């Protein structure tokens, strides 16, 4: 995978103070165990809406107590699952998205649960984490909305390939993840024929197939135990990648840089997969 930034030593997982956290926490704990990294549980307590109310301080104190109890419960659950894992819980004041996005600068990976909000709600909900953290984190972000499919043998991951710098970063991560898990890797490139031809059955040009071999050549040598297949699909990237990942452990895609005045721009493929894929979605930043 892409080398960790200086000081990046653990896997960070956001704990929801209200909703179930077991699915994303199980994924994060298992990944920390595989990578032999500490696990950091983070819960953020947002400020009250009306800071002029006299009962704000007691209210915040109650929220912090509840958050502390939630973190302790999650920590005990992880230790029962992986007794040897190093686990730390941190309670922070502030809105969850900026708190976790800021802490991601010192993390190897961030793991979040998904509430399967609609696209508009995902962007504008005060409690939304997925879009802002995925857009801003400088490390891989894993969004766990559905459980891994462990019934398919051999197990496999899917990685999207388009020849860009971001897809090269995704490939490096996907090979490393497949190697850790002893899983196969399906490298998928989606070709969209020029609209001017009007021919959906047009043959895939040889250059599109050559792109796959060139992209994976060095990584196949680095990870000789990973069985990788090259697949070129024709259609819409979101639909084709989601279809390929229907029974996958996860789908991995590259994530381009931040942009826009909010710093929350996401590529259409990444955003689409966050809502369409029925497996964990791992987005990997360039560089």
Describe this structure in words.
- By secondary structure, this protein is an alpha/beta fold.
- It has helices spanning 22-35, 56-81, 96-103, 119-124, 130-136, 165-181, 206-222, 237-244, 268-276, and strands at residues 10-14, 39-45, 87-93, 107-113, 141-144, 156-160, 184-191, 228-234, 251-255, 281-285.
- It has a ten-stranded mixed sheet, with helices on both faces.
Biggest sheet record: 10 strands, mixed
Quick one: overall form?
globular
Structural class: alpha/beta
Read across the widest sheet, the strand sequence of neighbours is: 3-2-1-4-5-10-9-6-7-8
Low-confidence stretches: 1-7, 117-127, 258-264
Keyphrases for this structure?
single chain; 287 residues; alpha/beta; ten-stranded mixed beta sheet; 39% helix; globular; disordered N terminus
How is the topology of this model organized?
Layout: E1 10-14, H1 22-35, E2 39-45, H2 56-81, E3 87-93, H3 96-103, E4 107-113, H4 119-124, H5 130-136, E5 141-144, E6 156-160, H6 165-181, E7 184-191, H7 206-222, E8 228-234, H8 237-244, E9 251-255, H9 268-276, E10 281-285
Parallel strand pairs: 1-2, 1-4, 2-3, 4-5, 6-7, 6-9, 7-8, 9-10
Antiparallel strand pairs: 5-10
